[in-house]
Amino acid sequence: MSTNATISIEELTAQPLPIFEHSARAFRKVAHQGGSSFEAYGDIILKDPGLALHTLNQLHTTANQSLHAEISSMAQATMLLGIDRAKRLTVGHPQLERTLSGFAKTGYIRTACRAFHAAFQAWDWAHIKNDHAPNEILLATLLHDVAEMALWVAAPEQMHQFRKLMLKDGLPTDEAQYIAFGESLEHFSREIAARWHLPGLVNDALRPENASQPRVRGIMLAVQLARSTERGWYWEKTERVLPQIADYLGASLDEIIPHIHKNAVRAAREAPFYDARYAAALLPLLPGGEELIIEDEFPEAEAEIETIKKPAAPAATEKPASASSSPQNNAPTTPKPVAQVCLLPQTDLFTQTLHDLRKGMGKMKLSELMRKTVHGMHDGIGLNRVVFCILDQKREKLVSRYMLGSDNDPVFSRFEILLDKPHLFTRLMERQVSLWVNDDNRKKFWPLMPDDVKTRIKTNSFFAMSIHVRDKPVGLFYADRRSLDCKLDEQAYKQFRQICQFAAKGLANLAK
């Protein structure tokens, strides 16, 4: 459901992202000192997302053609521009302090600060993994949340509403996006990346199905860490992502946590000009202090926060205190109730998807066919998470290829189903068949579910349909509504099967 008209990509990209006044001063200082070092300009650019985007745009404009080689660093970009053009990059470009005000300004600064924290972490991890171009990873991470920054410039009221829905009302990110914008941030990011000709690694990291690629996974984990630490280092989502980072870096959690803390401090020291609360500033905060973040951003919510803090009897289903909790913070408190908002099916969009699939039968490329299909399921039917998995060449597992609605979850984004042992999905792959696991049949089917899939999806109701081409299995569609409060229904299941059948016909035509 959405209370706002969808923002067009034209509106979103009509204005450039502003640069920080500090960046302009730093550029003048380098020029005044007679510096002709491309590295000096590159270091300044990599701390300012708006300036990085402006630099890439200038490079694309002056090239008069698509760049054949990927830009691996901003020093390389300034070198391609030439020293004279590089020196003038900040001249005449809108500066944040003069163009934005109110929560548009504070929101943009907060997002840019978070982006640099993520970029610094990803850059450090790239060095640990001996990556061939750590600065390329830094740049891709810095620009990952470019849609949020563009929304603070073009639609600050809706961005403020989005933050309120998440922080005050406790809505899941995916649902809050649709209420505030009528679209997902993932969609806006991809559109901006295409329109502003962002580097290929930025595009790759905006597609959750690429989470199995090591470089992309590092970016996703860094973005997830930076987002979660906005709410505190002891917040549940932060504690969930830390073991994933340790696994990614091949080190123990005891080694990784202090290293990540040091990175947060180093990031704050590298870019002290951000007028925002750094993740490093939250390191001394004790568990349970995340309400302070809400209070800072939304002072009008202070009365509500005081109500939340009042102790109450623990519910029967209350989660026990974690081992990392501080002894003085073990007193039971009433958690803020999480409001659940279910995506509203868009009948017109679903009908249009079927029309487009029928009309494009045999004409669409595989990527167009699948992206239109998953968007039809996600937006048209109102299914929160949609995945199409392909059968790998060895026919040993199903691996995600197209995905929507993962909310940058590094665990769900690495969606795969091993087929090495008999279970529910190996049975599904025997022929083209669909299944809806629900209250009526869960007792029968749930024991057949692989444990790793149960852990990955964190729900017990979903749709699935295997896809065969010429009587041979090629893949499987999976979809759910994520929250148990947003129940799947018969109409959605019929539409899911219908759109899967169209996709199967499209694949069969492509196979010809």
Structural overview:
The chain is α+β, with helices and mostly antiparallel strands and 512 residues long. The chain has three domains: 69 residues, no CATH class; 187 residues, Hypothetical protein af1432 (Orthogonal Bundle), CATH 1.10.3210.10; 165 residues, Beta-Lactamase (2-Layer Sandwich). The protein contains 26 helices and six strands. Strands 3-2-1-6-5-4 form a six-stranded antiparallel beta sheet. Helix 3 crosses helix 5 and helix 21 packs antiparallel against helix 26. The longest helix has 27 residues. The two termini are 40 Å apart.
Quick take:
The protein is built from 26 helices and six strands.
Oligomeric state: single chain
How many beta-strand elements?
6
Spatial gap, N to C terminus: 40 Å
Low-confidence stretches: 301-339
Tally the helices: what do you get? Answer: 26
What does the largest sheet look like? 6 strands, antiparallel
- Please tell me the total number of domains: 3
Question: Would you tell me which CATH topology of the largest domain applies?
Answer: Hypothetical protein af1432
CATH class of the largest domain: Mainly Alpha
Radius of gyration: 24 Å
With strands numbered from the N-terminus, the spatial order across the biggest sheet is 3-2-1-6-5-4
> Mind telling me the CATH superfamily name of the largest domain?
Hypothetical protein af1432
Mean pLDDT: 85
What CATH architecture of the largest domain would you give? Orthogonal Bundle
Counting helices, strands and paired strands, the structural category is alpha+beta
